[in-house]
Amino acid sequence: MRCIGCDRPTDRSLQLTTLFAHGPLLAPRLCHSCLSRFCLITGATCVGCGRMQPTEQLCSDCRKWEHQGRLLHNRALFAYDASMKAWIYQYKGLGDYRLHVAFQDLIAARLRHAAALVPIPSEPKHFELRGFDPIIGLFGCLRLRSWLRKTATERPQAQKTRQERLKTPQSFHVLASEQMLNRARQITLLDDLYTTGRTLYHARDALVAAGFKGTIDSFTLIR
After folding, report:
1. Cα 12 to Cα 27: distance, rounded to the nearest angstrom
2. What backbone torsions phi and psi does residue 174 show, to the nearest 5 degrees?
3. Does domain 16-222 have CATH number 1.10.150?
């Protein structure tokens, strides 16, 4: 297997925890050198959103969400630094779909015990422009439940200020029946990037409004 970052042979071996885990067995697609460009989230994180920080207390953003209702528990793989910003721009902004497999071995290992995995869908116009759904691409190695549809919004989240993102109106519709939803006791929402949390909270609220009675958390590639 060759690294999709530098085209050299990948030098990362499969871990024993992966070999004996339930779920898909995926070979690494980035070598150690290319993977080391990105900052894996380790150590203390905010117990709400998963942001890397000195303590495990709620960050200021999550304290605001907590005041508005039940907190959404999110975990992520990487910090949003310059290297990851460049990578996500190449993948989503430039439409370099070959990058969708870059982190699938790490994603599969982290989500191997998850129950119902529900991806955040692309808006139809964004899908038409890119020709692919970036979230389905990132998490497509896993069994996904396409239970959400996203209607068109005025502008993409990436083009909005922080305050504009927080004011984005609800745009999710639930496609699954209440009976189907409640066959699962837990839902994990999947997205590429957690910034303000607005998108994930809207998705959570839509599922609750549709009658889901279990617990909902989320997982993102980046925080």
Report:
1. 9
2. -90, 130
3. no
